[in-house]
Amino acid sequence: MGKGNAIVGQSGGPTSVINSSLAGIVEGCAGIADIDRVLGMRWGIEGFMADQLVDLSAQSAETLAGLRRTPSSVLGSSRHKLQDDDFPRILSRLEKYDIHTMFMIGGNDTMDTIHRVTAYAAREGYELRGIGVPKTVDNDLYATDHTPGYPSAARYTALSVQQAGRLARDMQKVDQFTIYQSIGRDSGWLAAAGALARHRDEDGPHLVYLPERAFDRERFVDDVADAHRRFGYVSIVCGEGIKYADGTPVSASETTDRFANVEFGAMGGASVGMRLHRMITDRFGWRGEFQVTESLPMCAIDRAVETDLNEAYDAGREAARLAGEGRTGVMVTFVRETGDPYRISLGTAPLEDVAVRAKPMPDDMINADGNFPTPAFFDYLRPLVGELPEYADLRVDPVA
């Protein structure tokens, strides 16, 4: 392959560390002989088709270094679903800008995009290397131990639930329950992280409901009643994607995005947190509150994990190295070598596999009742999130 340019796109929801991967790609490409310039897609593949590009190679060293600690998606993102008539337009832009290497940072849908583009280019006889860099706070990408962005979002969730749990405990004479709703359409990796900082039985959360298990309304209110009897209040975490046994979302919404993914609580529908709130108040008449952080865990750089920032950067560098070797059609993966001490190595997985497969939480990480993670999950997560605070408590002894 002769010398040409590379293009990078960010797609889907952001993370606290996605820009660190971008910096890794740009800096990694600087030493590759057959890559001249690295260009960036403004607004993902959608912007690329509209000639909205930025010259990443022209950015200063200070800017690239700053990206490693900059939240959200600096290039701008998109959730455009590729249509058949998009491919000729994409190919024309590849030819126009002499692009022969494409990097995309994203999740399953993003890996599907780059896989389809490279396959189309090959059919048309156009040389194009395609490398994917993983990204999603949902942590549901196939073939990788975890995804960049998940550890930081998990830490955000663990700290939020820990602190909200103490608030719920101390306000139990006002609010008898609290519900924290986590993002996570089909997997409970992020919702389960809410229980990581729980040190004692009475600490919140008491109940965690995950999309991997069918939701049963009567079982739920029984769980709530039991926790309230034991602790005097109830702290609950739920994944936004929990469903009944027939597959119906607990959320009232049936709105879908361009990839046919359900958008929970959209278009005026009640969020799952609101639905659970209503179930409890209807049954017990208690006052309570719900907390919905939505996209905040995706961009909270102040709670980013140092290991996550570094691994995201390393994934970008590795993608550039693979391109330099002439590799194509793969996504960078993390392989856990040991958990204690924590150590990973970098590997690859075929884009075509990642695009069509997801990674739910395994059965051994969810308890038999389906309402709390097991110690196996905490062993998996703890090295990723790092040490969490443990707060002081008063001794409550009878006063003579």
Explain what the structure shows.
The chain is an alpha/beta fold and 400 residues long. It folds into 2 domains: 199 residues, Rossmann fold; 176 residues, 3-Layer(aba) Sandwich (Rossmann fold), CATH 3.40.50.460. It has 12 helices and 11 strands. The strands form 2 sheets. Strands 3-2-1-4-5-10-11 form a 7-stranded mixed sheet, with helices on both faces. A 4-stranded parallel sheet has the order 7-8-6-9, with helices on both faces. Helix 1 runs parallel beside helix 10. The longest helix has 21 residues. It is elongated and about 85 Å long. The N and C termini lie far apart (86 Å).
Write a brief structural summary.
This protein is α/β, with parallel strands linked by helices and 400 residues long.
The mean pLDDT is 94
Q: What is the distance, rounded to the nearest whole angstrom, between the alpha carbons of the first and last residues?
A: 86 Å
Report the CATH architecture of the largest domain. 3-Layer(aba) Sandwich
Overall 3D geometry? elongated
Helix count from the secondary structure assignment: 12
The tally of domains stands at: 2
Structural class determined from secondary elements:
alpha/beta
From N to C, what is the helix and strand string? EHEHEHHEHEHEHEHEHEHEEHH
Measured as a percent range, the helix fraction is 25-40%
User: For this structure, what is the CATH class of the largest domain?
Assistant: Alpha Beta
Strand order of the largest sheet: 3-2-1-4-5-10-11
CATH topology name of the largest domain, in short, is: Rossmann fold
Cα radius of gyration in angstroms: 23 Å
- The strand count comes to 11
Beta content comes to 15-25%
Model regions low in confidence, pLDDT < 50 over at least 5 residues: 264-268
> How would a textbook summarize the main sheet?
7 strands, mixed
